[in-house]
Amino acid sequence: MLSLSHDLCGYSEEGVRWICEMCEQYDVPTTFFDTPALRLDAGEVGDHCIALHVPGSTTQEEIDQGLRDLRERHGREIPGWRRHGRTEIEHYPGIWRRMETAGVKWSNTWPTQSHPNRATCSPCGTSNRLPFDIMDIETGRRMGLLELAIFDTDDADRLGSIGYGMRLNWQQFVDVVARRLDHAAKHNLTAGYLLHGWTAGVGVESGTTYGAAEARDMFTHIIEAARDRGMAVMDGDEMYRWWVFRRACRIEFGPDGPAVVAPDDSSEAEPDVFPPMAEEDY
User: Fold this and answer.
1) Residue 103 gets which letter from DSSP?
2) Cβ–Cβ < 8 Å for 139, 180
3) pTM, 2 dp
4) 95: how many CB neighbours lie within 10 A of its CB?
5) Are 28 and 4 in contact (CB under 8 A)?
6) CATH 3.20.20.370 residue ranges in the chain?
7) What's residue 112's pLDDT?
8) How far, rounded to the nearest angstrom, does the alpha carbon of residue 76 sit from its chain's CA centroid?
9) How do residues 44-63 score in pLDDT, each as one tens digit?
10) Cβ(2)–Cβ(178) under 8 Å?
11) Does residue 227 register a pLDDT over 60?
């Protein structure tokens, strides 16, 4: 699978419009991570997935208000969130608990040290990229949050001049993406590309925006490359529903033999856990 997403921490109306036009042209979904202060209008993004972007350390009141603002603005539930912030005591696991309390269903978290699925902006290889449940590291409780590893490559791989990336030239950029797509396609994992809104809106490259044009070109290139490999493109909400449905499917063994049981496609579905079969069951 391929997942496309966009942080709007650096907002650009031109960038958002270009992203929407490209998604319409290629008939693919994408996820915009909006922040309440930006007040992104629903008309600008149409039917694309919207999720909450929570930068830095955030209180329960700020998270709740941000979700209310987005629900009111877009007229839909906002089940997903992305958070950028350092791995510090006040952030983890407290931020997870606050998001769970707010009713958020799935998350996507940066930076790399928070989760092993992230390796963008660094010269190391990626590890497993499949959804997984968040665990409370203090209590060992399985939380009601599903972490989606929905990007392993982003525009910072090309935009090293902004200070937190490993800058690659275009051919190196293409090669890295090809290897990550090959890995994801071979092992049925998730690959993804994050293009910031401001990057998509750069007109004339200069200073810290050098490389923006090729970072924007990568957006369409990775769609075509994923399709060449037979990969599906999903937004965050779709991937959440797919994984919850997938993990709820099971095989039951009865007098008439095994039977595959699948629930309806509900975001509230929970998998049944069966005890090991006794010897007489074989």
Assistant:
1) T
2) no
3) 0.82
4) 21
5) yes
6) 2-242
7) 41
8) 19
9) 677 788 889 887 767 899 89
10) no
11) yes
